[in-house]
Amino acid sequence: MNLRYVLAIISIIYGTEAGMAQANPANSSFSFEGKYFAGNGDTNYLALLDSAYSLLEPNAEMENLSMLYKQDWDGFVEGPTWNAWWIQNSFGPTYTMLPFMDKAYQTFIYNSQDMWFKMQGNGVRKDNNGYVGPKGVLCDAATPDGVYYRQGDGKVDKHDWCFGFTTAGILLESELMLIRRDKKEIDHYLPMLEESADFVDSRRDTIKNMFLVGPAANLLAPSYAGTGKLLPDGSYGKAYLAEISVNYIAALNRLIELEKIMGRKDKIKLYSHRLDLVKKGLQSFTTPEGYFIRSIDPDGTKHGVFGAPKHGYFESTPNHDAMAFRVVDDRKAKKIYNIIKSIPKLRPYKLIIPNYPAYDDMYEYDGIFKNGIWVNGGEWTTCEARMQLGYYRVGAYQDAKAAFEKILHMAISFRMDNPLSDFGNRPYQPNLPINVVYDNWGVPGGFLRGLFEYIYSAEGLRLYPHIPPGITTLQQKFPIYFGRKKIYIAINGSGNISSVTVNGKPTKDFTKKSIFLPLDAKVGIIHVSIGLGGSPTKESVINEDQQDNLKPVISMDNDYWNIDMLRDVAHATSKTTVAVLNNIKKMSRFYSKLVENNLQETYEAKHAALILEVVKTIFERRKLKKQKKIELLPEKSQVAADNLYISTVNNLTSGLIQLLEKEKSSSNKEERKIYLIWKSI
Questions:
Q1: Given this model, what pLDDT does residue 550 score?
Q2: Do 3-59+456-546 and 65-449 come out as alike in CATH topology?
């Protein structure tokens, strides 16, 4: 499937001529008007940005994020074959997508991540393998009924606790709290986040200020085996692991901002002191060329010095994460990128792999541990998500674009599998009719978040525009979320920032590289217009009334609501019950009533709107199939893909009804009111 075909698909979906614009993408005489982006200049890139956002929203042509809803915990799930919520796998996609998530998706993330903290180690609770997790440890993965405090694959008895996972979990939950801005939620989670931060810090060498951890304490576990040397007692020696330092710095940066919101000066002082110490320790992992090695043994042996006779691989994780989370400055980020660029086999199929060449310090090398299959040289798009942010920081837009195109092809063919075997070239589960795994959404998420980064703090939001030079104007038609605020962004020109207006008024809160938006108490809409390279600002053309995710759909046509009509009758394997179909139809009236009662911004309204949007998408997909404007998949895959749309509606509907029934006895007046509205329909 080539790019011309992909762009032709985009033109069908959005009614644009994007597919015809690629012949001269940098010619500013071409204009692009997509569903989610508008602009001038490189229409090829603009069309890809549009398609990236379309992977987050229900659409008739490709897999989308709503398909990963899990009714059991009213949240996201890793995938149909991965029935839990992993920290490592969600790290990249969640971080990159959070600014774009409305209350429905935010709540799904909130509920999924809450399982990690409900199951947090307390020195008493046993995990699924019988290990008692120390106080503060998070997990490899969790469900409402189970948890793993040690990475659950491989030689679990040899594994250390989940230090890498815990560090990433602190970062993700802190980022979510900084975006949601709910002090009650922050007050609830802060003690748990502090326990997790203390747990990680318990392994900090107070002289070297590096973290000494054993096998499978890394994120992409169990590829790391400490020193890799088997000790007489059957264990493996611990080593100082660079990625813990990198991500602990990023996590503390966000945790400190939460402490500022709550005015906890003692904790701000404590974590700021730790932050300074760990930054100093991180220098020990830096090579003269400017990249980070993987680890250092207590005897001084270094792992991950590229080209060395022993342990001479390049380790991607600490490097792309240092770029993504601004652990290094722009100059050092560029050095890291130049090293990555100089090693083509780190990206043999456009997507970053964790290491090249193969590891020589694992505890196992057979089966899925062979190079190129799984954690040893296999591709994980949770990592590519962070690499995308790194690309944008250093202006490597074509690298970001090439990686996203790879994922876009997979989305169109319903092959969003993870990990990717053969160094990133093949699905891990090719024998399934379709694949849908959460990790993959990190690439469209990173392709989008990289444009402005969105750094949330206690005081406000900082934007770092990274606009490809071929784009001369750009308008994001969707909002960025910051508490109860919605922020729309438009740019004009290219180069450094020269002028900024906020809601039409000039502001001086910017440098040539970034813009700061101070937080105020007012709820509302913010339009940010940015002039680059001396060009004047152009005010946003977005009308908030036209940008609601969904206007209520009231159709008298029963066929519109009959989602089963998407199925090919000859291949129908199941049928949605009349009761469920009636509930789906009721969702339209329910949403309308919520709007009438000024409750359209509630989670329940956003969830109902999502259901209706998927129903609308099914109707559109039916039309595309009938008009032969959609390329059908192989028979079994086509049946599975169509069934996925239908099951998504069923799951979302059942999940919302399940929630509404719980609200029947809620002490919250608004929740009770919403329940009564539902029962009145």
A1: 47
A2: no
